[in-house]
Design goal:
GO terms for molecular function: oxidoreductase activity, acting on the aldehyde or oxo group of donors, NAD or NADP as acceptor. β1 and β2 form a beta hairpin. This protein folds into two domains: about 260 residues, 3-Layer(aba) Sandwich (Aldehyde Dehydrogenase, Chain A, domain 1), CATH 3.40.605.10; about 180 residues, 3-Layer(aba) Sandwich (Aldehyde Dehydrogenase, Chain A, domain 2). It is built from 16 helices and 19 strands. Bound molecules: ligand TXE.
């Protein structure tokens, strides 16, 4: 079995120092994360600032080559990274989980290496010749969450490095070791101080966002923290890309074949055991197919194994932390008091471990109940019956978030017409949550602003410069 000891030795705090990090499946301590002080963060930002001009001066070709070499380094360590991620985050090795996440890191690095952002000729009419060029912003602060800690770190750092920025990464305090290990591996291929990871608590995150020498903040996390980062940007004028929470709705139209969509619906909702920003979090199903859809989802749930992520059979894991476990438990208990019907699950799976909660399908529930209105970010899905599609569209749009959404049905044109009326950054048809390194991704309303991925993602970590004349 691949050992993660070497990676842990490279990044852990010395014995007796740092913060213990627990495996959410077993409660075991897997290592100690260094806890940087604000002064240490300041020193890291100064180093990143000093390294930036030379990194930008290398030019696009050389930076692309470095990103490809960094992807090679990730591939060479992929199994170790996946195992460390599984132990720290809880997600299984198999399924759309740890090995998949490490693979996505490499794919995003390579795609960013291959992207081209050429100068645009704006006006060329004989009198005026104006071109738009893109330059690096400077030093980018990348602040990440605990659900997809490696993939989201790469979403932030790959385009930033590609454009010639240097980057200071602050991982979530729940999953620092795997991100520190990833950055250490990436740094096998990058020049000194182009990419620095600083592990610490919320004070370190707050300082990174408000630091006068930070030019851009890439943030994925809660809406509450996003608001704080917006406030601090009034001080340092940092540009922001904010990918905040969501409460994605899915609408299943009449005539849909329930068994044909059940697998995709299931994974749209329960990828990473529901701990995914753009997961399906409220499902609106037409009365004519409601019972079949609920039944088909229950069949998939029964056949999908949950447990310790290192067991090759499992594809669902624990909640990553007690805070999130308590949110899911509270929302399901509250739904019960409102008369909702628990189809599968419905109470903690303590036989698997303290932080396990089973796949919980909650039927006969309505808008206004907290499990529908609040982001559960876990393995509990409310399934709401509708009779008029106009009501379903209104329900999808009634909340103050808009990251993703989906429409499921046999008629693609009809589904597309409805999709155009959903207020979210992405609407999928007959699938939910798939992302692609060439397709811009971002939210509207309380889900944040700015997009990641593709050429638009490069522009988001660049500043325009017009050359006129
Ligand atoms: O997020 P936080 P948490 C949602 C999910 C979850 C909730 C809280 O609903 O229940 O957010 O999760 C850093 N300035 N999502 O507590 O607090 C912090 O150290 C700058 C949705 O993990 O937002 C961490 O690195 N940074 C989400 C990061 O911000 C600050 C994924 C995220 O922490 C800071 C995860 C500050 N003032 C949770 N305070 C998604 N969109 O995918 C904290 N941080």
């Amino acid at each position: 079995m691949t050992d993660v000891r070497d990676l842990l030795d490279r990044v852990s705090a010395p014995d007796g120092d740092g913060r213990p990090i627990h495996d959410p499946a077993t409660g075991e301590v897997i290592g100690n994360a260094p806890e940087a002080t604000v002064a240490e963060l300041d020193a890291a930002i100064a180093r990143a600032r000093a390294a930036q001009p030379a990194w930008e001066a290398l030019g696009h070709e050389a930076r692309s080559a470095a990103l490809n070499a960094a992807a090679d380094a990730v591939d060479a360590r992929a199994e170790e990274l996946a195992r460390l991620l599984s132990r720290e985050q809880g997600k299984p090795l198999n399924g759309p989980n740890a090995r998949f996440e490490v693979g996505a890191c490499s794919a995003w690095l390579r795609t960013n290496a291959a992207l081209r952002l050429e100068p645009e000729v704006l006006v060329d009419d004989g009198e005026t010749h104006a071109e738009l060029h893109y330059r690096a912003v400077g030093v980018v602060g990348a602040i990440g969450p605990w659900n997809w800690p490696l993939m989201i770190a790469v979403w932030q750092l790959a385009p930033a490095l590609r454009m010639g920025n240097t980057v200071v990464v602050k991982p979530s305090e729940y999953t620092p070791l795997s991100v520190l290990a990833l950055v250490d591996v990436l740094n096998e291929a990058l020049p000194a101080d182009a990419l620095i990871a600083v592990s610490g608590g919320r004070d370190v995150g707050a300082r990174l966002a408000s630091h006068p020498d930070i030019d851009k903040v890439m943030f994925t996390g809660s809406t509450a923290t996003g608001r704080r980062i917006i406030e601090s940007s009034a001080g340092n004028l940092a540009r922001l890309t904010l990918e905040l929470g969501g409460n994605d709705a899915g609408i299943v139209l009449p005539g849909t074949d329930a068994t044909a969509i059940a697998q995709d619906l299931f994974w749209g909702a329960f990828i990473n055991t529901g701990q995914t920003c753009a997961a399906l979090k409220r499902l609106y199903v037409h009365d004519s197919v409601y019972d079949e859809v609920v039944e088909a989802l229950a069949e998939v749930a029964k056949a999908t194994p949950m447990g310790n992520g290192l067991d090759e059979d499992n594809v669902l894991g624990p909640l990553q932390n007690r805070q999130q476990f308590d949110i899911v438990n509270r929302l399901v208990e509250d739904a019960k008091t409102h008369g909702a019907r628990i189809v599968t699950g419905g109470s903690p799976a303590t036989e698997l471990g303290e932080l396990f909660y089973p796949i919980t399908l909650v039927a006969d529930i309505a808008d206004g109940v907290a499990l529908v209105d609040e982001e559960q970010f876990g393995p509990a899905l409310p399934i709401i019956r509708y009779t008029d599609v106009e009501d379903a569209i209104a329900s999808a749009n009634r909340l103050d978030v808009g990251l993703g959404g989906s429409v499921w049905g046999p008629d693609r044109d009809e589904a597309r017409r409805i999709a155009a009326r959903i207020e979210s950054g992405t609407v999928w048809i007959n699938s939910h949550g798939g992302v692609h390194p060439m397709i811009p991704f971002g939210g509207v309303k309380g889900s944040g602003y700015g997009v990641e991925f593709g050429v638009e993602g490069l522009k988001a970590v660049a500043v325009p410069r017009v050359i006129n004349g």
